[in-house]
Design goal:
Layout: H1 22-28, E1 34-35, H2 42-47, E2 49-53, E3 59-63, E4 74-81, E5 84-99, E6 102-105, E7 108-111, E8 114-118, E9 123-128, E10 132-137, E11 141-149, E12 155-165, E13 169-181, E14 192-197, E15 200-205, E16 212-216, E17 221-233, H3 235-239, E18 245-258, E19 262-271, H4 284-299, H5 307-316, E20 320-325, E21 328-333, E22 336-337, H6 344-356, H7 361-373, E23 383-384, E24 391-392, H8 398-413, H9 416-436, E25 443-444, E26 450-451, E27 465-466, E28 469-470, E29 477-478, H10 479-496, H11 501-522, E30 523-524, E31 529-530, E32 533-534, E33 540-541, H12 550-553, H13 561-574, E34 576-577, E35 580-582, H14 599-605, E36 611-612, H15 616-626, H16 631-650, E37 660-661, E38 669-670, E39 674-675, H17 676-690
Antiparallel strand pairs: 1-9, 2-3, 3-4, 4-5, 5-6, 5-13, 7-8, 9-10, 10-11, 11-12, 12-19, 13-18, 14-15, 15-16, 16-19, 17-18, 20-21, 22-39, 23-24, 25-26, 27-28, 29-32, 30-31, 32-33, 34-35, 35-36, 37-38
Helix pairs in contact: 5-17, 6-7, 6-8, 6-17, 7-8, 7-9, 8-9, 8-10, 10-11, 13-15, 15-16, 15-17, 16-17
Length: 691
């Protein structure tokens, strides 16, 4: 299969979401990762973020202005028990150039709505590839600041490449340490210490559980000058009505004199406190080679000559990390950066796009095996605890998505050995347990459909709850769970066809019963779409929500062709936006068009109108299925997908896709700035359209 860039990506029409400027065309077609900072205002460049990740769950992140706007931004956030227990160690650095007794500061910090210093004014361009790069031009001095995160170690290299030096000058770097849990904020009441360990400066706080930060530079000398800097302001936290001021500590300054073009490197690493000494003896060229190798492993496919697809492949790799279970490192998928860990539901919605579409079958098998090994009472974990690693099983759909992903793995990889030996026993256990009953009252009802939960549980993906208030109480029989149940039963029956007549008949009978009940119970003839939920007392919740689209997107559907078209048409008219599907129709009195305010307000809006980009995947698949994957339907589907492809480089996090968007215009990106299933479903949809 060869993927090529499609001409219909640039189809002409009058719809604003389909108009692509020359700049937009360039950004889609291979100029991903570049931002002309000098052409933008400060608010625009502070809104554009970046992230680098490693295999441990560690990351470096910030804005293209170099100014941190979140508590989660920092040059080094490491995972002390990968991928959990994450600590923001090195927050930022203040770089200064002193030339002819005049000091120019390259950094940018925000203090109570005041940007000082304003080093962003000297940045011409931001670039992202295997690292991130800030190109500065100060007239007589031209330099590039590059940040590289090591692929398998919580360590970074900050490289200052002085390309033009008209006259000698003094250069200094003052590091600012946070040394705190990455969810928290630091205050100057905490005791911070620093001491030399051989040739590295070791920084610790009295909170020893935060590990130790090691700093080293062979190109600069260090001068002690301990300082607390107070009240760094993080505007994103302010907008979320959370604590937004932080104090940061600096032990002193690294200094050197620049006489001619050269490179200066500052290394930083986070290790466990009291761990055996870890020397910062990295070689920059070796690190760059290892990063290039990882990039080739993610994108090196001789059958691909589509630059956009290669960029999507690269972006997909940032969510795949390792988790240690039973003393063995196995692959898993983080739901999103900066704050999510691996969630079962998110993992298995993401897996087909992140790993199967990209041909990473061995990693996909490892992820499936990781969660299969953690199954309990016929349920796949919903998530692992951020600190203890304990599995939580509060989800009705994670197990259904696991089964779906396992069958997709078999279909696309052809790996019958892994499927039958490792995955099939787990699948049969899940299906059997869901039928007879497990946690939270999950069981098959007399009509063959799955029911579960009560008014106090939030078991589906619409799980927002705050202050004891469940904002989307979806319990009983929900539409997407039973669409998955029916599809999984059909796939089991198909699997046993020609292998075991008894098992084929067993699962086919169950599927037929569930399918007939599904069509009778969920199809709403009056409204022309599917009911969202049937409560245990028989009350029908006919809210117009996007969950019904899965009943058409899945290969096996109990609906008629006419019913499928009605659902797709209704969802397209009422819920589709340029950035995904709304979670509730704007005509509903409960609709909330903006995700903003305090925690209660944001949670209330989370699934009551907020747009989720990952839903574009099942919508496009449903649209293509109901139009027989015709060329015209593919052209139209690409127009639907195009705004999210532009978003990857024009707003939010450069090189990724945001978790959510406002339901109302101008549809600002919100939530996590890099979400796994959003990127995965865009990649999968792009592949469906272009394959």
């Amino acid at each position: 299969m060869r993927y090529r860039f499609r001409d219909h990506l640039y189809g002409d029409n009058g719809d604003t979401e389909k108009n692509v400027t020359a700049t937009s065309k360039k950004n889609i077609s291979g100029e991903l990762g570049k931002v002309d900072v000098s052409e933008l205002g400060i608010d625009d460049i502070l809104a554009k973020e970046w992230i680098l990740t490693n295999s441990r769950g560690g990351f470096a992140s910030g804005t293209v202005a170099g100014c941190n706007t979140r508590r989660y931004h920092g040059l080094l956030t490491g995972a002390l028990t990968p991928p959990a227990n994450r600590v923001t160690a090195l927050s930022n650095c203040l770089e200064s150039i002193n030339l002819d007794n005049e000091t120019v500061e390259l950094a940018s910090f925000e203090f109570d709505n005041d940007i000082a210093p304003q080093g962003y004014k000297y940045i011409n361009q931001f670039r992202r590839d295997i690292g991130v790069h800030f190109d500065y031009d100060l007239g007589g001095v031209k330099l590039t600041k590059s940040i590289y995160l090591l692929p398998d170690t919580d360590a970074i290299a900050i490289v200052y490449d002085f390309e033009r030096v008209c006259k000698e000058f003094d250069f200094s770097v003052r590091p600012f340490a946070a040394m705190r849990d990455f969810h928290a904020l630091q205050k100057s009441t905490v005791q911070m210490d620093a001491e030399w360990q051989n040739d590295a400066l070791a920084i610790t706080s009295r909170q020893r559980e935060c590990g130790q930060l090691l700093l080293k530079s062979e190109d600069m000398r260090f001068e002690w000058d301990e300082q607390w800097w107070h009240n760094f302001m993080y505007r994103k936290e302010y907008q979320r009505q959370q604590d937004h001021f932080e104090d940061l500590w600096s032990p002193g300054t690294f200094k050197t004199t620049i006489y001619s073009p050269c490179k200066v490197v500052l290394w930083a690493s986070l290790t466990q406190y009291g761990a055996e000494e870890m020397a910062l003896d990295f070689d920059l060229e070796t690190i760059l080679d290892s990063l290039m190798l990882r990039e080739r492993e993610l994108t090196d496919n001789t059958f691909i000559d589509d630059p956009l697809l290669l960029n999507l492949y690269s972006a997909a790799g940032q969510f795949v990390v390792e988790r240690n279970i039973g003393g063995e490192d196995t692959a898993t998928i983080l739901a999103g950066y900066p704050w999510f860990l691996d969630w079962g539901r998110d993992t298995f919605i993401s897996l087909p796009g992140l790993l199967l579409s990209t041909g990473r079958f061995e990693t996909a098998a490892s992820v499936l095996a990781t969660f299969a090994a953690a199954a309990d009472k016929g349920m796949i974990p919903n998530r692992f605890d951020d600190y203890s690693g304990v599995a939580h099983y509060n989800s009705i759909d994670a197990s259904m998505w696991f089964v779906h992903a396992a069958f997709e793995y078999l279909r696309l990889s052809g790996d019958m050995q892994t499927f039958t030996v490792i995955l099939l026993p787990a699948i049969r256990w899940i299906i059997g347990t869901y039928e007879t009953g497990t946690r939270f009252g999950i069981r098959a009802d007399d009509d063959g459909l799955i029911t579960g939960g009560d008014e106090d549980t939030q078991l589906t993906w619409m799980d927002a709850k705050c202050g004891g208030v469940a904002f989307t109480p979806r319990y009983g029989k929900t539409v997407e769970i039973n669409a998955l149940w029916y599809s999984n039963l059909c796939r089991l029956a198909d699997f046993y066809k020609g292998k075991d007549e008894h098992e084929e008949k067993n699962y086919r009978t169950k599927a037929d019963k569930a399918g007939q009940s599904f069509a009778e119970l969920f199809w709403n003839e009056e409204k022309g779409y599917l009911n969202d939920c049937i409560l245990p007392d028989g009350t029908i919740d006919a809210s117009l929500r996007p969950n019904q689209i899965y009943a058409i997107a899945l290969a096996d559907s109990p609906l008629s062709q006419g019913q499928k078209r009605c659902v797709v048409g209704t969802v397209e008219r009422a819920l589709r936006t340029p950035y995904g599907l709304r979670t509730l129709s704007p005509d509903d009195s409960r609709y909330i068009g903006r995700y903003e305010g305090d925690q209660m307000s944001r949670d209330r809006a989370y699934h009551q109108g907020t747009v989720w980009p990952h839903l574009i995947g099942p919508f496009i698949e449903a649209y293509l299925r109901t139009n027989d994957f015709s060329k015209e339907s593919k052209r139209k589907a690409m127009r639907y997908l195009r705004p999210l492809l532009l978003h990857i480089n024009e707003s939010g996090c450069i090189g990724s896709i945001s978790e959510i968007f406002d339901g109302d215009q101008p549809q600002e990106p919100k939530g996590c700035f890099a979400q796994a299933w959003a990127l995965a479903e865009v990649l999968r949809a792009y592949t469906l359209i272009n394959s």
